Amino acid sequence: MSAYTIEKREKGYLLFTITRSEKRNAINYEVMKGLEEAINRASESDIRALIITGEEDHAFCSGGDLSVFHLLHTKEEAYSMLSKMAAILYSLLTLPIPTVALINGTVVGGGCELAVSCDFRLARKGIKAGFVQGKQAITTGWGGGSILTEKLPTAIAMKLLMEAELHTAEELKEAGFIDGLFEKEAIQVCEAYLEKMLEKDLSVLQSYKRLWIRKWEENKLRERIEEEVKNCALLWESDAHHDYVKTFMKKRL
Ligand SMILES: CC[C@@H](C(=O)O)C(=O)SCCNC(=O)CCNC(=O)[C@H](O)C(C)(C)COP(=O)(O)OP(=O)(O)OC[C@H]1O[C@@H](n2cnc3c(N)ncnc32)[C@H](O)[C@@H]1OP(=O)(O)O
């Protein structure tokens, strides 16, 4: 069964769904390929927005697939995977149309990096979310830390990253990370959120999105992300990180 679906919806947007609910929608190489495909397809002239979500309501995304990525031991091996995903998230961030992370369930680690790379984040009330990488003796490694510093005030971003705790959607709305909350009918709520934007000419949406892309280009966000990836790759090969992953894997055997 495929790890994702991509649907072009009547209202003029593309819906990307990670379909690995049995693994809490963890990101493996196939999901990465799917994201690349969705981002490429989102450049078609009749697409005005991209929505990313997860299958079922357990999780939006549980980050990198530890059952695959535990095989990466050295910094070089880690760098290869981290930089691939960082490039994908940078193309998502700079996609010239509005993008939404429709957070239907738990979102942790790299899942938060995926969410922060979208322009808007709508979350189901009560779900838990966190940049938990710090508890695993690594940092964000897909560029999400650098992107978070662009989107939230410094003290808030720093606290979320350095504490590495889980928070409720309501707390994260207060912090400015979540833009809207919903209880049910996620897709309908998201369509209503995007309604006015979907009515506009593509060129208007693209021109506005360019204002942010230009700012990110000027403040060298892509270079800062590269540094973040390299630093995370270094931490990846530490015993502390490998011990965390081994413990996670053992609990599930
Ligand atoms: C690697 C990139 C790095 C980055 O740069 O950011 C990261 O993403 S680091 C973060 C990696 N992610 C995690 O550490 C999350 C680990 N998962 C969990 O903490 C929990 O599973 C959950 C997400 C809080 C959900 O809890 P719950 O609903 O209770 O489900 P289970 O724990 O029972 O899991 C069900 C099922 O899914 C498998 N699973 C969950 N997350 C992952 C994952 N990230 N990779 C691989 N597999 C995952 C889990 O093993 C269970 O499988 P079975 O035991 O086969 O049923």
UniProtKB/TrEMBL annotation:
Keywords: Cytoplasm, Lyase. It holds the Pfam family ECH_1. PANTHER family: ENOYL-COA HYDRATASE-RELATED, ETHYLMALONYL-COA DECARBOXYLASE. Gene3D superfamilies: 2-enoyl-CoA Hydratase, Chain A, domain 1. GO terms for molecular function: enoyl-CoA hydratase activity. SUPFAM superfamilies: ClpP/crotonase. Its main location: cytoplasm. It is found in: Cytoplasm, Cytosol. The lineage of its organism: Bacteria, Bacillati, Bacillota, Bacilli, Bacillales. Decarboxylates ethylmalonyl-CoA, a potentially toxic metabolite, to form butyryl-CoA, suggesting it might be involved in metabolite proofreading. Acts preferentially on (S)-ethylmalonyl-CoA but also has some activity on the (R)-isomer. Also has methylmalonyl-CoA decarboxylase activity at lower level. CDD domains: crotonase-like. Its EC number is 4.1.1.94. This is Ethylmalonyl-CoA decarboxylase. Belongs to the enoyl-CoA hydratase/isomerase family. It catalyses: (S)-methylmalonyl-CoA + H(+) = propanoyl-CoA + CO2; (2S)-ethylmalonyl-CoA + H(+) = butanoyl-CoA + CO2; (2R)-ethylmalonyl-CoA + H(+) = butanoyl-CoA + CO2.
